[in-house]
């Protein structure tokens, strides 16, 4: 009986997270360089289905098995879908899209390094190329690219930065062994971790100048996930209510 309560409640928690992930993907459908997240479920570990009690004068911990719950599920993780989004032309010389694998390297004021596919860059007051959040774009050797007070700035298909006809540096791209495990930081920023692997320099970057990569979110697909998640949540809630009612009836019956 209680196994049904555990199963229904765990299903509700999973669907709640599925709805959250799909909603976040839909909210960022127009965010440049955004990579949709995928929720991954797994069977609930049977070792967790135990009751712990403190027994004896020294309160020794004793585990009493409740039973198998292998049909229960939990949200294992959410991973990044690294597939490319549609590239659209903007005509802005500081807009640049990545063709193929790779990520731009960016640094904040505290020295933290982030990676992104969003190439909607601009110039700050000091002539540095920055993203929309003000993070500085890094070039050769991890050095920020400064164009001074140049009146004309463009980035070509190899990442070369040209300001007023003069080459001032080149944009570096980095790739990862497992980009699906990159840690999300904000809308379209990522950080490397042990699961993703260390960043590896892309020797021959392929860029599209005057263009942006849109998010890889498929609106129809995410709407279907949202509806399915909502219906599954409601079904699990009804099951939980039914199990609770049956438990109450059993207690009342045998309690007499």
Strand proportion: 25-35%
Number of helical segments with 4 or more residues: 2
Computed structural class: alpha+beta
The main sheet comes to: 5 strands, antiparallel
Q: Describe the global form.
A: elongated
How many strands in all? 20
Order of helices and strands: HEEEEEEEEEEEEEEEEEEEEH
The whole-number mean of residue pLDDT values reads 84
Distance between the first and last residues' Cα = 19 Å
The value of Rg in angstroms is 26 Å
Helix content: 10-25%
* Low-pLDDT regions: none
Layout of helices and strands:
Blueprint: H1 2-27, E1 37-43, E2 50-55, E3 60-65, E4 73-80, E5 87-89, E6 96-98, E7 103-107, E8 113-116, E9 122-123, E10 129-130, E11 136-137, E12 153-155, E13 160-163, E14 166-170, E15 173-175, E16 183-185, E17 189-191, E18 200-201, E19 207-209, E20 211-213, H2 219-255
Antiparallel strand pairs: 1-4, 2-3, 5-20, 6-19, 7-8, 7-11, 7-15, 9-10, 12-13, 13-14, 15-18, 16-17
Helix pairs in contact: 1-2
Walkthrough of the structure:
The chain is α+β, with helices and mostly antiparallel strands and 256 residues long. It has helices spanning 2-27, 219-255, and strands at residues 37-43, 50-55, 60-65, 73-80, 87-89, 96-98, 103-107, 113-116, 122-123, 129-130, 136-137, 153-155, 160-163, 166-170, 173-175, 183-185, 189-191, 200-201, 207-209, 211-213. The strands form eight sheets. Strands 7, 8, 11, 15 and 18 form a five-stranded antiparallel beta sheet that branches. A three-stranded antiparallel beta sheet has the order 12-13-14, with no helix packed on it. Strand 2 (50-55) and strand 3 form a beta hairpin. The model has no long low-confidence stretch (mean pLDDT 84).
């Amino acid at each position: 009986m209680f196994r049904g309560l555990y199963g229904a409640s765990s299903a509700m928690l999973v669907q709640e997270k599925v709805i959250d992930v799909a909603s976040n993907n839909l909210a960022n459908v127009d965010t440049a360089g955004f990579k949709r997240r995928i929720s991954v479920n797994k069977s609930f570990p049977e070792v967790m289905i135990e009751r712990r009690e403190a027994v004896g004068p020294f309160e020794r911990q004793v585990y009493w098995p409740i039973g198998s719950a292998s049909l229960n599920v939990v949200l294992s993780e959410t991973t990044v879908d690294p597939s490319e989004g549609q590239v659209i032309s903007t005509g802005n010389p500081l807009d640049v899209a990545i063709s193929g694998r790779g990520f731009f390297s960016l640094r904040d004021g505290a020295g933290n390094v982030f990676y992104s596919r969003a190439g909607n860059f601009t110039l700050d007051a000091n002539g540095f190329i920055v993203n929309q959040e003000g993070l500085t774009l890094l070039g050769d050797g991890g050095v920020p690219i400064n164009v001074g007070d140049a009146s004309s700035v463009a980035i070509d298909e190899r990442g070369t930065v040209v300001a007023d006809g003069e080459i001032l540096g080149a944009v570096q791209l980095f790739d990862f062994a497992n980009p699906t495990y990159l840690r999300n930081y904000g809308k379209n920023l990522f950080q490397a971790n042990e699961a993703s692997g260390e960043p590896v320099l892309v020797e021959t970057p392929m860029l599209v100048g005057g263009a942006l990569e849109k998010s890889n979110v498929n609106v129809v697909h995410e709407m279907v996930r949202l509806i399915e998640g909502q219906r599954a949540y409601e079904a699990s809630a009804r099951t939980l209510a039914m199990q609770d009612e049956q438990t109450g009836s059993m207690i009342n019956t045998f309690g007499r």
